[in-house]
């Protein structure tokens, strides 16, 4: 696939495969896993530095940390769930947001240059955790019958089409929802990474004799894509958390 | 590099990007669990405590400012009341002073009038007394002179006779009466 005659190493699925860095008990440890662990240390490290010895009069780092924390808490959780109901989910949502965001940002960090969330396993794990959270919450709030009424959108006034609606809602909420939740993040990062790799590789590949202007164009595109990706990374983290909140809100809502 | 790419390309054929790899799922779960645990147990309680402290501090500050404002208001009112009272007092004093001054002037004027009248009366009585003294002295002198003159003219002493007849006195009385009449 990478060899189509002209020698241009076009990016493809192989861009998402990595040689193992080392092997532990038969399992390969690769770049994705390394970046995942570094993400954990980075997120905790930053917020430890910011909030570890929090002061009433904040330092610069604490101020930045507080701004990020406040953005998720007030801007996402309180907005969707309200202050009273939402308070309980703030730690979960804050973790989700910064974990995902840093995973995405790896895409443009030199040496790393790979968004960890473009590997389906990562969004899938997170979407699964959200899914389990709101499903169990629905059970707890509404009981067994209430759970089915809640996720099937049971509404007597629909009359004859009610079974159809219930069937669609059931599949939509229970099965499609977690899938789209994970794939939305995955696909955005996947596509972004492909674009970045393509323009980066092209800038290098085109760098000979009369093709140099084209290389320049490609390089400018790379820069533009990096800026665009920085935006997409933040937006996708935001969207993921916002959706998680709205699912939980659906679970908490009284059925009517 | 080329060999690696070839190998990866070979793997790619059986690669489905939507099928997660077990180890990655595991690592992802653990990584997120760690992040969540730290936020949940340590970092967010930490910052929430501080935010709460800050909130109470700000509220305390606002309350304090409110109290100070109220106090300032009461002090201002008190001050204004005192000022009004002082103004009133000053007006009263001025009024009183004016009245007192007027009374004093009137009294002084009356006193002056009285003294003037006294002085004038004293002057009058003095003049009267002087006049009387002068008149009696004059009468004696004139009598004596006239007697002497008459004695010299007549050549004999008429003194005794004159004293007996009181002629001179009568004459002088006549003169006085005339003078009174012409005055």
TrEMBL record, chain A:
It is a multi-pass membrane protein. PROSITE patterns: ATPASE_A. Pfam families: ATP-synt_A (PF00119). Its main location: membrane. Coiled coil: none annotated. CDD domains: ATP-synt_Fo_a_6 (cd00310). GO terms for molecular function: proton-transporting ATP synthase activity, rotational mechanism. The chain crosses the membrane at residues 32-51, 89-109, 115-137, 158-179, 185-207, 214-231. The keyword Transport applies. Keywords: ATP synthesis, Cell membrane, CF(0), Hydrogen ion transport, Ion transport, Membrane, Transmembrane, Transmembrane helix, Transport. GO terms for cellular component: plasma membrane; proton-transporting ATP synthase complex. Belongs to the ATPase A chain family. This is ATP synthase subunit a. It comes from Streptomyces bungoensis.
UniProtKB/TrEMBL annotation, chain B:
The chain crosses the membrane at residues 25-44. GO terms for molecular function: proton-transporting ATP synthase activity, rotational mechanism; proton-transporting ATPase activity, rotational mechanism. F(1)F(0) ATP synthase produces ATP from ADP in the presence of a proton or sodium gradient. F-type ATPases consist of two structural domains, F(1) containing the extramembraneous catalytic core and F(0) containing the membrane proton channel, linked together by a central stalk and a peripheral stalk. During catalysis, ATP synthesis in the catalytic domain of F(1) is coupled via a rotary mechanism of the central stalk subunits to proton translocation. Gene3D superfamilies: F1F0 ATP synthase subunit B, membrane domain. It comes from the Bacteria. It comes from Streptomyces bungoensis. InterPro entries: ATP_synth_B-like_membr_sf (IPR028987), ATP_synth_b/b'su_bac/chlpt (IPR002146), ATP_synth_F0_bsu_bac (IPR005864), ATP_synthase_B_chain (IPR050059). It is a single-pass membrane protein. This is ATP synthase subunit b. Belongs to the ATPase B chain family. GO terms for cellular component: plasma membrane; proton-transporting ATP synthase complex. The keyword Cell membrane applies.
């Amino acid at each position: 696939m990478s060899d189509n005659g002209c020698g241009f190493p076009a990016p493809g699925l192989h861009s998402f495969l990595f040689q193992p860095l080392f092997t532990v008990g038969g399992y390969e440890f690769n770049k994705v896993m390394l970046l995942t662990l570094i993400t954990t240390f980075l997120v905790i490290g930053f917020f430890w530095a910011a909030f570890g010895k929090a002061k009433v009069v904040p330092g610069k780092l604490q101020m930045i940390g507080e701004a990020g924390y406040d953005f998720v808490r007030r801007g996402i959780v309180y907005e969707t769930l309200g202050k009273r109901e939402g308070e309980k989910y703030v730690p979960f949502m804050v973790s989700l947001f910064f974990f995902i965001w840093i995973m995405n940002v790896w895409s443009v960090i030199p040496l790393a240059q790979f968004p960890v969330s473009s590997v389906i396993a990562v969004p899938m794990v997170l979407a699964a955790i959200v899914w389990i959270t709101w499903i169990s919450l629905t059970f707890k709030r509404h009981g067994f019958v209430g759970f089915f009424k809640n996720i099937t959108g049971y509404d007597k006034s629909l009359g004859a089409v009610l079974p159809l609606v219930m069937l669609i809602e059931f599949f939509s909420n229970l099965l499609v929802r977690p899938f789209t939740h994970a794939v939305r993040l995955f696909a955005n990062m996947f596509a972004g990474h492909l674009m970045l790799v393509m323009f980066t590789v092209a800038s290098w590949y085109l760098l000979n004799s009369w093709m140099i202007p084209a290389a320049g164009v490609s390089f400018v595109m790379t820069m533009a894509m990096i800026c665009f990706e920085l935006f997409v990374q933040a937006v996708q983290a935001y969207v993921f958390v916002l959706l998680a909140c709205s699912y939980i809100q659906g679970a908490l809502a009284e059925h009517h | 590099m080329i060999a690696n790419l070839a190998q990866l390309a070979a793997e790619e054929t059986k690669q489905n990007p939507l099928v997660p790899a077990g180890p990655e799922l595991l690592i992802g779960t653990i990584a997120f669990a760690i992040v969540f645990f730290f936020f949940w147990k340590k970092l967010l309680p930490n910052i929430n405590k501080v935010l709460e402290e800050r909130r109470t501090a700000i509220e305390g500050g606002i309350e304090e400012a409110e109290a100070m404002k109220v106090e300032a208001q009461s002090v201002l009112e008190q001050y204004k009341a005192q000022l009004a009272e002082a103004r009133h007092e000053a007006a009263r004093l001025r009024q009183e002073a004016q009245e007192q001054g007027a009374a004093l002037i009137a009294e002084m004027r009356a006193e002056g009038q009285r003294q003037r009248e006294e002085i004038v009366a004293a002057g009058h009585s003095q003049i009267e007394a002087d006049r009387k003294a002068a008149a009696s002295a004059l009468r004696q002198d004139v009598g004596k002179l006239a007697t002497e003159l008459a004695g010299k003219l007549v050549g004999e002493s008429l003194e005794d006779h004159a004293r007996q007849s009181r002629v001179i006195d009568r004459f002088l009385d006549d003169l006085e009466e005339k003078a009174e009449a012409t005055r």
